[in-house]
Amino acid sequence: MRKILVAAGAAALLLPLAGCGSDAGGGSGSKTVTVHVGYQSKTINTVTAGTLLRSLGYFEQQLKALGQRDGTTYKVDWQDYATGAPITAQMVAGKIDVGSMGDFPLLINAARGVQLRQPTELVSVTGYNLRGGLNMVVTAPDSKLTDLSGLRGGKVSTSIGSAADGTLVRALRQRGIDADHDLHKLNQQPAVGASALQAGSVDALSQFVAWPGQLVFDGKAKALYDGAALNLPTFHGVAVRRAFAEQRPAVVDAFLAAQVEATDYLHAHPLDAAQKVATATGLPPEVVYLYNGPGGIATFDPTIKKQLLDAFAEDVPVLASEKLVGKIDISHFADDSFIRRAVGADYDRQAASLANPAPVTGTDPLCGGKVADPATASEAWPAGQQRTVPFTTPSCLLRYLRQHPGSAVRAAYVPDALTGTRWFADRAVWATDPAAGAADRFQPFTTQENAAKWLAAHPGWHLVDFARAVEGAS
Predict the structure, then answer these.
(1) Number of Cα atoms under 13 Å in the Cβ half of residue 134
(2) pLDDT tens for residues 78-111?
(3) What is the pLDDT of residues 209-229, one digit of tens each?
């Protein structure tokens, strides 16, 4: 587990280096060390190594304690980027020491580091989704598209080399569609692609957390494809320059200890954490909570799990087919020795567990009973309150929404009955069977495609819009 051999490389997306020079914070005799951290503030399943961590100040606190022991003054230079590619460029130039990014960019990071003799190492995970639900394809709210097959011959915006691009390529292949020949794929930054979708210049947008949720929440898009339908894990993680880790292992230890602290804070104070991230990023708190709250789309656990590494290795052929990597062997990329020290004696148990350490819990106030099944656990966030209300099933949540209409509820969350992806109740596709029990009469889905698959296996069920679902809840 400590080390993994992966095959990767970089052909495209290799930015020319200018003025390569290491700034790891000074030599061994320096009394002042600046640690350069690259992060993606709006990629909110990296917040425990970025936005939330920065807001809480835990890394600075760890470095202050370290400095009191070794007589060094430490400073942190936080550098915010929209995607992982520029973080990689800065890391191999020696200008960023620690960076967080998604699984596809991490592979390119690893390959480029070896190619340019500035090797990097994966030292921890931030957030992950075992089925791939962190990536989605969305389309305009009034689009007639109901599944990915309708994109043949159309225009799709994505960030090439990202995990969202990988999801798009894989999902289209399952339908016999070549992403490079059967449609026009535009390589755009997420914000540019979002604007293109709203302007009607593209038919769909394939992006990573939190863009799909934000656009759907704002009423500017609807979900067309749920990445969890691939049933292949996706994750984000933390990479460090190997030279920096060898020169200053205590700083890497401090960073990961701070990440563990931030993860614990996220689990203990989910609403407060969501609002801190929202303040720092401008994202709606309801969107941050969709991904980062209990039972959220992202599971936060810093340990490096075998299932994630196995899926990670499967990403290489996809990147190679897109001509983004070649056959460059990279050994010893994943190293759990640092995060093992940060987590402590419980590391092996935690790394082996696939359970979400922050599930939705509590007592259902309407249907009764403890909320225990993550496949059906639902949640409402009452307006004006710093608490949420849990429910055992989506149908029980609908009963609550019937009693608390309109602006009385800030947001409501339900799990997709097919994939488990957490979604906004009022943006979900709903199905019903009047013959089912009151607590199980309605089932939600992120997409029309997921609903169609589920209905095909459940005779007697039919689609119903959200308003009628609320009205029918009793």
Answers:
(1) 29
(2) 999 999 999 999 999 999 999 999 999 999 999 9
(3) 999 999 999 999 999 999 999
What is the rounded CA–CA span in Å between residue 345 and residue 356?
Answer: 19
> In this structure, how many other beta carbons lie within 10 angstroms of the beta carbon of residue 387?
9
CB-CB contact of 146 with 448 (8 Å) = yes
- Six token digits for residue 180: 């490079």
Domains 6-130+234-352 and 135-230 share a fold: yes
Calpha distance 399→385 (Å, rounded): 19
The domain 6-130+234-352 is placed in CATH, from the list 1.10.3720.10, 3.40.50.300, 3.40.190.10, 3.40.30.10, at 3.40.190.10
State the Cα–Cα distance between residues 331 and 311, nearest whole angstrom: 17
Residue type, 226: D
Q: Which CATH number is 378-472 given?
A: 3.30.450.410
The rounded distance, in Å, linking the Cα atoms of 220 and 200 is 11
**Residue 471's Cα: distance from chain center in Å?**
34
Q: Which pTM value belongs to this model?
A: 0.92
Of 125, 122, 132, nearest in space to 353 by CA: 125
